[in-house]
């Protein structure tokens, strides 16, 4: 039995078992990344698909995903690789692992096609942060960029290990109430906020909020969220929050939320207009 230190859960993992995320395991009394080098998805994507709109627009990036996640969003679009039971099943089927060197070399081989580096995405990359760290270091050595698409649910020590190698992040700020984070997502809003506060001091950050009808779709919540974003500061203490891009995305019924209606398009535009009163760069998605 050993305790994981990646996120707020601090799972006590029995020998040979896995934590809540499905990706971290206990082996010889030590918690390690069981998903290290297990790649479930690999694709050359437009940078805008991450989504990143103000970081090297028009470029392509090699997107890499593994399995496992430390949240339980009932609207997850990547549930087959993110939720524990299916994630563990995938792990058992994949004996072959891809090394950080192979990923970095593959990324470099696509430079001629416009590739700028590697994006760690699809599942939650933070639960396998060791692979992200080791790969991103090699990508930097080749003069290329690293991007991370994350839910931001990790302890400061994890972020500290990654920051020297990450050039840009899109971080999900899924809502702005503790009820929504704890009861619907199984997460910690405070941990995500602290993660964002530190990330914006070191690299390019864009935020994404998926609007779920009846959950996080009020103008009041959007106002509270944008007030907080506006107050974010850089490493020198300068307020930069108003320049941080916010992506407001439309929800479609999926996974465990097929009983909900899709978010009204007009409401997305209204929320975006409301957010735009404080933030300079607000984008709508899935509309």
Mind telling me the CATH superfamily name? Aldolase class I
* Order of neighbouring strands in the sheet with most strands: 5-6-7-8-9-10-11-12
Q: Could you give the distance between the termini? A: 47 Å
Overall mean pLDDT stands at 95
What does this structure look like?
By secondary structure, the protein is α/β, with parallel strands linked by helices. It has one domain (40-285): Aldolase class I (TIM Barrel). Helices cover 30% and strands 20% of the residues. The protein has nine helices and twelve strands. It has helices at residues 79-82, 84-93, 100-109, 129-141, 156-162, 178-185, 189-199, 219-230, 265-275; strands at 2-3, 12-13, 24-27, 30-33, 41-46, 60-65, 115-120, 145-150, 168-172, 204-211, 246-250, 282-285. The strands form three sheets. Strands 5-6-7-8-9-10-11-12 form an eight-stranded mixed sheet. A two-stranded antiparallel sheet has the order 1-2. A two-stranded antiparallel ribbon has the order 3-4. Strand 10 (204-211), helix 8 (219-230) and strand 11 (246-250) form a beta-alpha-beta unit. Helix 3 packs across helix 4.
Briefly say what this structure is.
This protein has nine helices and twelve strands.
List the helices and strands and how they pair.
Elements: E1 2-3, E2 12-13, E3 24-27, E4 30-33, E5 41-46, E6 60-65, H1 79-82, H2 84-93, H3 100-109, E7 115-120, H4 129-141, E8 145-150, H5 156-162, E9 168-172, H6 178-185, H7 189-199, E10 204-211, H8 219-230, E11 246-250, H9 265-275, E12 282-285
Parallel strand pairs: 6-7, 7-8, 8-9, 9-10, 10-11, 11-12
Antiparallel strand pairs: 1-2, 3-4, 5-6
């Amino acid at each position: 039995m050993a305790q994981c230190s990646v996120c707020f859960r601090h799972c006590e993992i029995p020998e040979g078992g896995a934590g809540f995320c499905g990706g971290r395991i206990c082996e010889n009394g030590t918690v390690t990344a069981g998903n290290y080098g297990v790649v479930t998805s690999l694709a050359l994507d437009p940078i805008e698909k991450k989504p990143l709109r103000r970081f090297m627009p028009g470029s392509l990036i090699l997107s890499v995903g593994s399995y496992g996640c430390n949240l339980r969003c009932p609207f997850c679009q990547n549930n087959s690789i993110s939720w524990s039971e299916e994630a563990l099943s995938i792990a058992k089927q994949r004996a072959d692992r891809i090394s950080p060197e192979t990923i970095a070399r593959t990324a470099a081989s696509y430079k001629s096609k416009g590739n700028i580096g590697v994006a760690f995405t699809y599942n939650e990359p933070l639960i396998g942060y060791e692979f992200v760290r080791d790969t991103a270091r090699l990508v930097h050595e080749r003069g290329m960029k690293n991007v991370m698409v994350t839910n931001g649910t990790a302890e400061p020590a994890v972020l500290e290990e990654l920051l020297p190698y990450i050039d840009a992040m899109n971080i999900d700020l899924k809502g702005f109430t503790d009820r929504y984070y704890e009861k619907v997502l199984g997460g910690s809003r405070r941990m995500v906020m602290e993660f964002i506060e530190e990330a914006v001091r070191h690299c390019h950050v864009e935020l994404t909020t998926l609007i779920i009808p009846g959950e996080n779709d009020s103008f009041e919540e959007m106002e509270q969220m944008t007030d907080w974003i506006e107050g974010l500061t850089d490493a020198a203490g300068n307020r930069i929050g108003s320049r941080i891009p916010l992506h407001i995305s439309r929800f479609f019924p999926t996974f465990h939320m097929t009983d909900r209606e899709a978010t009204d398009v007009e409401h997305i535009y209204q929320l975006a207009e409301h957010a735009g009163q404080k933030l300079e760069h607000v984008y709508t998605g899935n509309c």
